[in-house]
Amino acid sequence: MKILYENCQPKDALDKTLPYTSYLVEYIKDGKPHYDVSLGDKQAEVFDYYWDKYKQDLKKIDSTGGLVNPNRWDTSMLRKPERKTRKRPKKEDVKEKKSEEGKE
Question: Please, which residues have CB within 8 angstroms of residue 34's CB and are 6 or more apart in sequence?
Answer without folding.
Answer: 7, 26, 27, 28
